[in-house]
Design a protein that fits this description.
With 382 residues, the chain is of the alpha/beta class. The protein is 37% helix and 13% strand. The chain folds into two domains: 242 residues, 3-Layer(aba) Sandwich (Rossmann fold), CATH 3.40.50.1820; 91 residues, no CATH class. The protein is built from eleven helices and ten strands. Strands 1-2-6-3-7-8-9-10 form an eight-stranded mixed β-sheet, with helices on both faces.
């Protein structure tokens, strides 16, 4: 495939596309009794029908209704498990939650999988509205405690979780935010582009010029420039980024194809909203318990860029979140060696079991599940 990791504007805060020849992840070590269990559901959303899996823990039909979580996928067209490079991001967490007595709902994005609607026309705000619809649906079903419904979001999903937990009133009872942006989308994508090129061992002058061209391209989208001006800016960005990779043949055909793709992306409704969306006000309004996890080796939502701003804004929040940096993991919370984006597919395992356990233990404790085990010690924190 075309080096999407090189054409950094095509890589949003979660890796959206997966090549067809990537190896599958290792099987989950979740309790066999609940693997693959769950009920298929169809929910009325603001943009169409949302298809999903409702997973209830054993004993959920008793007198005490369990708490529940709604999963929120990252950017790009995602299925209900946020399957990336053969790894199901959300399935092992859902299984661990069920083992701890917590229900969960995972839905395909609008227009993806069995869900209906127009994905290409949707923005971050639309996906937030879809999540609200899922929360409201759960509250009316009678199978979970309507007062104990939280969210777990990854990357852009973490941003959406921030918006919901910082709403007035909060739209959820608690939230787990995995690699959530703490600055604007423009800042995120600019740093991401720079870090990716550095990870490819591009020379400093090339990185600086490509980063400048990337910023000018994003500004044309923010300012609503004409398609001709956008095409010129995208072509300049593509050429600058390709020039940083001496091993990649930057033919005219490749530049033209990448430019066409880039113009389409940069003129999309999602990009224009995401670039200017500032999470800081929502972080400062967090009104429910929140667990924030950053991956130490994350190149896409770097803790070097986002940890400080999140902590600063959260210091003003009515409810202070728990914020941790997990050592040795990438954006997908995999244990990694090089921790570059092209390593995602080569790593045979998915999310670190320690991270899965940390999430399920915190949710169980926060949601008041009586049998919850004591929370693990933070892997790393500031």
């Amino acid at each position: 495939m075309l080096k999407a990791i090189l054409i950094a504007f095509a890589v949003s805060p979660a890796v959206a596309q997966q090549p067809s020849d990537t190896p599958p992840a290792e099987k989950s070590d979740a309790p066999a009794a609940i693997v693959r269990e769950g009920t298929e559901v169809m929910i009325d959303g603001p943009g169409g029908k949302l298809a999903g899996t409702l997973l209830l823990p054993k004993g959920a039909q008793g007198a005490t209704k369990p708490p529940a979580v709604v999963f929120i996928t990252g950017s790009g067209p995602q299925d209900r498990d946020e399957t990336l490079f053969g790894h199901r991001m959300f399935e092992p967490i859902a299984l661990a939650l069920a083992a701890d007595g917590i229900a969960s709902l995972r839905c395909d994005d609008r227009g993806i999988g069995a869900s209906t609607g127009d994905f290409a026309a949707a923005t971050t705000n639309d996906f937030a509205a879809d999540t609200r619809a899922q929360i409201e649906w759960l509250r009316t079903q009678g199978q979970v405690d309507p007062a104990r419904i939280g969210v777990i979001g990854h990357s852009e999903g973490g941003l959406i979780g921030t918006l919901l937990a910082g709403a007035e009133p909060p739209a959820c009872a608690f939230a787990v935010l995995l690699a959530p942006p703490a600055v604007s989308g423009r800042e995120i994508l600019s740093q991401q582009s720079k870090d990716i090129l550095i990870s490819m061992q591009a020379d400093a002058a090339c990185v600086a010029f490509a980063t400048e061209m990337h910023g000018l391209m994003m500004d044309t989208a923010i300012e609503g420039k004409s398609e001709a001006e956008m095409r010129e800016a995208v072509a300049a960005c593509v050429s600058a980024q390709l020039a940083c990779n001496k091993n990649f043949p930057a033919t005219e055909a490749i530049i033209a194809a990448a430019t066409d793709q880039g113009v389409k992306q940069m003129r999309s409704p999602w990009v224009r909203v995401f670039l200017t969306l500032d999470p800081q006000p929502s972080i400062a309004r967090l009104g429910v318990p929140v667990l924030v996890l950053f991956g130490e080796r994350d190149l896409q939502v770097s803790p070097r860029q986002n940890l400080g701003p999140f902590e600063t804004a959260a210091a003003r929040a009515p409810v202070r979140p728990v914020i941790e940096v997990v050592p040795g993991v990438n954006h997908l919370f995999q244990r990694c060696a090089l921790c570059t984006l092209d390593e995602y597919a080569r790593i045979k395992s998915g999310m670190s079991p320690d991270v899965v356990k940390k999430i399920s233990t915190w949710v169980a404790k926060t949601a008041g599940v009586a049998s919850a085990a004591p929370p693990a010690e933070p892997a790393s924190s500031r």
